[in-house]
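Notes on consecutive records. When two proteins share a document, each keeps its own sequence and its own token line. Never mix them. Below: protein one.
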Amino acid sequence: MTCQKRCCVNAANRTVKKVLCIIVVIAALVWVDTNFNIIASSQANKQARAHLQAVFLSNGQVYFGALSRHGIGFWRLDRAHYLQVSKTPSALSPETPDGTAPQETRTTLMKLSDDMHRPQNTLFIPASQILFWQNLQNDSPVAQAIISGQ
């Protein structure tokens, strides 16, 4: 085989190797995105930053705030708030026949940082604990309370 033919064969082999390498890299990137939802979570992250969210957890708790991605397996909720339901005896209503006073239910939006142990106002939530989240409309009472800093 002459030197010229050998050079052409080597050049063709290098081209094939480059094409195969590119195909392997693209396949690896597609596999990573499919398994870790990088593109989808990036789009969800951008959409989430534009609004405040209600985040529904698997334990039944609902938190409100600004949701963003925090690594692969976690979400971060800034300006975190939650609803606290308390029952107080009603002073206006008479006692019931069994002698107990009727109770009023009061729901209050609580800032996470106002808890007794004074945590920072950020909550890190494992992605596996989030059932779903919803964007709040800017004119919702919860969003207005969070925006105004109450």
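Protein two starts on the next line and is unrelated to protein one.
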Amino acid sequence: MGRDRAERVAYEVVLACPDESDEAAAALAEPSPADSVLARGTAESWEWAESDPVWRAALLGYRGCIQERGWTFDDAWTPYSPVLAEAADSESGIRAALDQVDCLQSTGAAQTFVDVVAAYQVAFLGENEAALAAEDAEWEERLTLARRVIGEHGGE
């Protein structure tokens, strides 16, 4: 059973069991993603990468390749995917997906984005190593409590 699922099941069991303390329920309450160092790092590294000049240049190359193949973009929706007049699973949608993959590979945009995101993540990890280790330890404690509660009181 995965970490999130075990915690969710244990939380429900704690709430349903009169023998368990409110403290256990509070310890298993789902934390806000805004409180997570890991979630913040993931979001920030993607945001930073999207505004990085190296990525922006690669995106221009990718978009040029897509446009050369006759596709257009609706930047209000996304700067990455071409506009489809038909459903994504139509012949046209499949052709667009294949063109996207080809353009991402041939322009190097896919690898560039991964490299840029990784660079920001490495920097974030270095700056937040202690906080990430503490968050991981907290998750392990929560998971241990979740397993104990499920073991003592049942669950799915």
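For the record: The radius of gyration is 22 Å.
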